[in-house]
Amino acid sequence: MKKTLLMAGALLALTAGMASAAGGINLSWTDCGAAGALNNSFACTSNTMNGKIMIASAVSPAVLDEFVGQESEMLIQTNQPALSPWWGLSSQAGFNCRGTTAVAAGFDFTSGPFTCTDPWSGAAAGGMNYIGAFDGPNRAQLRTVCAIPGSTQIDDATEYYLFKITLLGAKTTGTGSCAGCTDGACIVLKSIKLVEVAGAPAGDYLVTTPITRQYVTWQSGGALGGQCPGVTPTSNRTWGSVKSLYR
Question: Looking at the domain assignment, is residue 67 inside a domain?
Answer without folding.
Answer: yes
